[in-house]
Amino acid sequence: MARLFLEKGAGLEVKGNDGWTALHIAACDGHEAVARLFLEKGADIEVKMRYGSTALHLAAYNASNGHEAVARLFLEKGAGLEVKDNDERTALQFAASNGHEAVARLLLEKGAGLEVRNDFGSTALQLAAGSGHEAMARLLLEKGAGLEVKDSDGRTALQYAASNGHEAVARLFLEKGAGIEWS
């Protein structure tokens, strides 16, 4: 169907009111073949929607069925690992805050920065902790994420976990030596 629309002259860079292009929709829904077709036909892999998200951000955020393959495709085609949205979030931060380990692992293998900060000064580990994603937190720690890194308000990953009631994540951080003396 997508091929037919393109043959009939549908524009790849046409944006809806929210700034979404056809590539954004394919990324969000995990349609690798459609995303590949759009890229082959010249879709801009770095085009941003209204809130600054790229197709890679959407693949990382919605990483369920097929999204790892879509994220891999975008990386193969040169999507920027450290591109930030309007809130200064990267694809790794989207994956971390939503517990999408497979995509996070892929992004880390490609060199995504562990200590990149969003507009609140939060890292991927802090976002995973605040959302209660223990396996994601464990992965990020294994890859070298800083346990004692503080955000703009001086909060650590342990504080993110504690303030949101995520006992398993807090326990993990304590086992890894997180400090509990807060100032």
Automatic annotation (TrEMBL):
From the UniProt record, list the ANK repeat ranges. 18-50, 51-86, 87-119, 120-152, 153-183
Name the UniProt key words of this record, in alphabetical order: ANK repeat, Repeat
Pfam families referenced in this protein's UniProt entry, alphabetically: Ank_2 (PF12796)
Q: Does the keyword Repeat apply?
A: yes
Per its UniProt record, what SUPFAM superfamilies does this chain match? Ankyrin repeat
> Out of the domains of life, which is the source?
Eukaryota
User: Per the record's keyword annotation, is Kinase included, yes or no?
Assistant: no
Q: Which residues cross the membrane?
A: none
Gene3D superfamilies reported in the protein's UniProt record? Ankyrin repeat-containing domain
Q: What is this protein called?
A: Ankyrin repeat-containing domain
